[in-house]
Amino acid sequence: MTADAASAPAGKARPAPAPGRRARGGGAYPRYVAGKVAGAAVSLLAVLVTSFFLFRLVPGDPVRTMTGGRQVSSEQLAAYRREFGLDLPVWRQFTDYCGKALTGDLGTSYQFRAPVVGKITEALPNTLLLTGTAFVLYTALGILLGTRAAWRHGGPGDRFHTGLALTLYSLPSFWLGLLLIITLSVGVGPVPGLFPTGGMESGGEQGLAYAVDVAHHLVLPVVTLVAVEYGQTLLVARSALLDEMGGDYLTTARAKGLRDDLVRRRHAVPNALLPTVTLIFINLGRTVAGVILVETVFSWPGLGGLFYQALSVPDLPLVQGLFFVFAAAVIVMNTLADLIYPLLDPRVGR
């Protein structure tokens, strides 16, 4: 007889542990984590294979593009192909690519004659500055307006914000960006242009003046991303909160005399955040990937603009590397969302 059993009152058996607790204590969560991580690893491997074969369907000869239309002898073209390994059979190129990728080597860019990892590392901070700033703004704006719209659903504010979010979310980002350039950069009629048409800096500035200059160039691309993306967060947050509105625990909280604002912030919103958490992590992955169209329209020197530039050659190693980084960012963030879910809701992962 164990000590616990001996200490129990005579004739009474100790209650068995809850099934959920026993499963969690028996290693259910580690198994859940292992399954998610294994699935992410398989997805990354599939992306690695897809990135190699997909962009070889893009028409064009990268060697001839690199020569810029100059008259080049066949011997010189053959030398270029040998230099970049394009004279090897496709299966040999594939095995070399996978072997190097597993060691962190994504190849050498055709047009820049530099390691792909170096070019990605160089452009990554610019993308994080742009899309990271936009991510913080449209996430906060979407959650705030979405929860307020749901709490007063059917009212004028709900109809206005929902209609505006649906309208902006349906607009192509490049079209909205061009419209902002025409109206706020070039100027319309007597209204002068207030912001730069593109780029990240004017050049020649240092210190605080440089930071102000970058912020000035940052306004229009950030506004474009926020206008297009906040609607999705708003709609998801609104829908999730509406599902919680009829809960008995909200009625109990009101019966205890809590103000309506406290009932919303302390009880309803935290329980409605699970779907929004998934969306936030997906958007975080897209933040690393950047937004190709917006960066191209505003000539922002980030990963999106680099991808467009590499695709026009085509610079196969650079395109493959960027595609892998974009997909890996989304996969990793989705996996993190799956791992955090059981910590927010114990029913997940049992």
Q: What gap, in angstroms, lies between the N and C termini?
A: 31 Å
The largest sheet, given as strand count, sense and whether it forms a barrel, is: 2 strands, antiparallel
Low-confidence stretches: 1-25
Q: Determine the structural class based on helices, strands and strand pairing.
A: mainly alpha
Beta strand %: under 5%
Identify the overall geometry. Answer: flat
Q: How many H/I helical runs?
A: 16
Strand elements, count: 2
Radius of gyration: 27 Å
User: What is the ordering of alpha helices and beta strands?
Assistant: HHHHHHHHHEEHHHHHHH
Mean pLDDT, to the nearest integer, reads: 79
Share of residues in helices? over 70%
Numbering strands along the chain, what is their spatial order in the largest sheet?
Answer: 1-2
Provide the descriptors you would attach to this structure in a database record.
350 residues; two-stranded antiparallel sheet; 16 helices; flat; single chain; mainly alpha
Structure description:
By secondary structure, the protein is mainly α. Helix content is 71%, strand content 1%. It has helices at residues 3-7, 19-25, 28-54, 62-66, 74-84, 90-101, 116-151, 156-169, 173-186, 207-244, 248-255, 260-271, 274-289, 292-297, 303-311, 316-344; strands at 187-188, 191-192. A two-stranded antiparallel sheet has the order 1-2. The longest helix has 38 residues, at 207-244. Mean pLDDT is 79; it is low at 1-25.
Describe, in short, the structure shown:
With 350 residues, the protein is mainly α. It has helices spanning 3-7, 19-25, 28-54, 62-66, 74-84, 90-101, 116-151, 156-169, 173-186, 207-244, 248-255, 260-271, 274-289, 292-297, 303-311, 316-344; strands spanning 187-188, 191-192.
